[in-house]
Request: fold
Amino acid sequence: MLPIVDKPTIQYIVEEAIASGIEDIIIVTGKGKRAIEDHFDFAPELEKNLLENEKWDLLNKVNYSSNLADIHYIRQKEPKGLGHAVWCARNFIGDEPFAVLLGDDIVQSKTPCLKQLIEQYKETYSAIIGVQHVPEDETHRYGIIDPLQQDGRRYQVKNFVEKPAKGTAPSNLAIMGRYILTPEIFMFLDRQEKGAGNEIQLTDAIQKLNQIQRVFAFDFEGKRFDVGEKIGFVKTTLEVALQQEDLHDELMQFIKNLINKNDANSSH
Reply:
């Protein structure tokens, strides 16, 4: 729910799903996350107040959030890892392919990131994992693919490795918070096997899925913002703010003044 300028992070992600053609969205939440449900719900008292005060712009924003899509909520009762969070939605998903979008990754792209993956799924009818290149010294922070063969931006994958030790990564293609998975993934998530960090890792289940059916990775086009870390959140907020015409000039001047002030202070 942390806002990027004037919109919660999760709304960017929900909007990407909708722009990609997704009609039913499941948000897996934990304890104390009711604010997410409230954000996408109707707010009659607030709407009435805005209407009476003729605050049309704010009213439109409130109505927009509550009319985005058919959103459902499932509670992950314990923080047992990403694989467990996906497993919690198994009964709702049923026997269909489905998409997973992580709540701390925003992607800006001409074609929505998830739509790019859906187009790849329509060609392969196989699970597709969104990846991008990262610096070699950061591979230990991500799930990394070991590519088998390449077709343009699409890779058939030999192995998936969750957070490899420094210097051991088979490539610098990192899993970036966007997945299309087949329902067979639940065969492996059902086992509740723990992996890195003593958590049930989605990457481990994908590796096992890859042993019974092809799994592909796709180097999607677009810029990915990591808002799950403090510095990433600050950088994302600044960059998105600078993209807005009504904020750009004043914010740029503020940043220049701040730099000049810091430079002056450091020279004393």
